[in-house]
Every structure is written in structure tokens, then in C-alpha cells.
Amino acid sequence: MQHYRYFRISLGWRILFGIALGLVVGGIFYQNKVAIATLQSIGTIFINLIKMIVLPIVVSCLVVGIAKMGDIKKLGRIGGKTLLYFEMMTTIAIALGLLVGNLTKPGRLIDIHSLSKGSIGQYTEAAKSVGNHGLGDVVMGIVPTNIFKALTDGEMIPIIFFVVLFGLGLATFGKRAEPLINAFEMISQVMFKLTNWIMQLAPIGVFALIGVTIAQFGFSALKPLVFFLVVCYATMIFFVVVVAGLVARIWHVNILELLKVFKEELVLAFSTASSEAALPKVMEKIQDYGVSQGIASFVIPTGYSFNLDGSAIYQSLAALFLAQAYHIHLSLAQQLTLLVVLMITSKGMAGVPGASFIVLLATITTIGVPASGVAFIAGIDRLVDMGRTAVNVMGNSLAAVIIAKSEKEFDEAKRDQYLAQMKS
Known about the structure:
Layout: H1 11-28, H2 33-69, H3 72-104, H4 121-130, H5 135-140, H6 147-153, H7 156-171, H8 178-199, H9 202-217, H10 226-250, H11 255-261, H12 263-272, H13 275-288, H14 293-306, H15 309-325, H16 332-345, H17 355-363, H18 375-378, H19 381-406, H20 412-423
Helix pairs in contact: 1-9, 1-12, 2-7, 2-8, 2-9, 2-13, 2-14, 3-10, 3-14, 3-15, 3-16, 4-17, 10-15, 10-19, 12-13, 12-19, 13-14, 13-19, 14-19, 15-17, 15-19, 16-17
């Protein structure tokens, strides 16, 4: 049976076409309220379709992975390695952002009073709740009082905590649990099938999301902050290619190969500025690439709350940018304090829309920058969000491979077979 020519073009190219078309349409319909509302609706429907399948995939894959693992000591070892790795990479990302911010001083070139203020009203209330988002709050938030409420609210960490316990409990029943484990495995397979269907709509969703961004803010919004944007993207690229590349090389992983494998997911994450949009395909592809189901099911969802490398770079850079724009000199001690604060406040925030922006809003007051200062970069937050989301996805994919290799649960033969299929 002949397939339509549309489907012969790879998904990555179709998404890139959607981005280009969105840029054109957004520019044509700049400040057109009807066009903005229409594009926003289309984009929201696509994101909602993705969100609809994220939790069923995470829960079903994690239950099966943990139940088959069945060893609480092994799980504890994997969990310890994973969190240690996440903390190390996040700290390096924050420190890199601070280093680059001190070297380039992007805020010194800005007359902050000449910039147009964006709207931060939608983030203010959320930021208030983050203000006391200390280590104790993170720990207390791990255990859900109501798992169904956690599922409804999309609170990833409490969900993972419950599902891990459920999977371990299921494993204790041996053969009697096999029917239920098989049922969860079938659910995961059905969800991956739905993912493939939904992803065919990605070019349309991407077109709408890019279009509404340009239609709202226009290309002129970039002009006063173009240097800050360039510094942000250059730092994130350096982190992926050099920092993550060196870490990958230590574990005999080729970072360029990984970028090629996940290119479609990275483009999707970039264009939608949503990590959730890429999660289902990342979960599926990382297993095809050779990572065991148990490792993939645990590391990837956990990383969405604890391993936000792109967000960490942005938060540290933006904090310094605003301090410099206000001519506030930060001592070494103040910058170290900022690093520690960001290490804590950046955890567990992935489920909140505009999470990085909210964390930044809640953090900058600790270094004497007025909270209203964040309004000056609100207009370009979406544009930076695209880059930091792609870096977050890349960081979590690499983490899964490294943890799998450390546990000797990476199938090299499966990887070679997958790469061969990509070339054919």
C-alpha cells in the first residue's frame, strides 16, 4: 500500500517546516488578537494531547521496570547514583552560568529603564509559594497524602515515590503478580502507540506555538536583549558539547551520536518549550537505544524534576544579568549564596508552567534585585525557554545512558542494531 508523500518526509523536517511557517505567520499577524487566540488554542490542544499520555506512560513503565527489578538494594543504589549525578551536573550548570555572566557582563550593556516591561502577573502568585521552597519543603513534598490528587496535579516526584513502592510491593508476589505486570506492560505499549499517532500532529502544534509567540511579542522584542539571548544560547551549547561531552566521553558515550539519535525530540522540545512534549518519545527511544526499561523508567521522569541543566544555566545567567543592569555589585560570597539557593529552589519545579521564570522571580530578591526587574526579560522568556528545555531533555537522555552503563544494563548490541536501522 502506498503511503502519502507527507509521511515520507521525516518528522524532524516536518517540525522544522512548522517552525519556519510559524515564524512567517506570527510576523504577518503581529498583535492580531484573533490570530493569537486561534494559534494559542491550536498549540494548547497539542500540548494537552501530550500531557494526556505522559502520566500513563510514566506510571506503567515505572511499575513494570521496578517490579521486574524486584531488588530494593539495587533500586537504592540506582537512586543514589542518579541523584548524585543530577546534583553534580546541575551545580556545574549553575557555576558555568555564573562564570559566563561574570566574564561577558551582558547586563552592563543595558539601560534597564529603556526596556519595555513584560507582564509577570501570571507568575507572581506561583513565585510566592516558591519563596520558602527550601530543602525541607522538597523532602516533605516527596510523600503524597493523596496519590489521586498528585496524579491530577501532575506532581511527578510524589507519583514516582508511590509507583516505586507499588512496584516493589508487586514484585514480592512473584508469579501471582505476573498478570498485573503484563497488564501494565500492555498499557505502556498502547500509550507508545498513541504517542506515535499524536506525534504526527507535532508540526501543526509547533507551527501554532511558534506563531503565537512571534504574534504576541514580535521580532522587535529581541533587539534590546539580543546580546543576553546570544550569551544564553552560547553557554547552553558549550555545556552540551563540552561539559556534557566530557562527562559522556568518560563513560564511552559519543555526545554527537546521542544528539543525532534524539534530534527529533530535541527539535520538538525546543519548538514547544515543553519537556513533557518530548518525554513519551524519549522514554521509548532511550530503550530502543539500549537502556534497560527499569533504568529508563526511573531516571528519565526523575530527571524532569531534579536534572534541569538548561534551566540552571538560565537562572544563574539571568540573575547576574539583572544585578548588572541595576548596577548591583555581587561579591564572591553573594554569588556562592546564589549558587546554593538555586541548587535548592530549582528542584521539584518542572511541573509548573514557566518554572524557570518562577524560580528566578523567587530567587533574585536574595541578592537585592527588585522582583519587578524580572519584568524586563519576561517578553523573551519564551524564546530562552525553548533552548533551556532542549538542554534539559538532552541532559536527562545522557543521564539515563550513563546510569545504565554504570549498572551494566546498557545493551551495546541493541544500540548498534538501532543505529544501523537509523542509517538504512
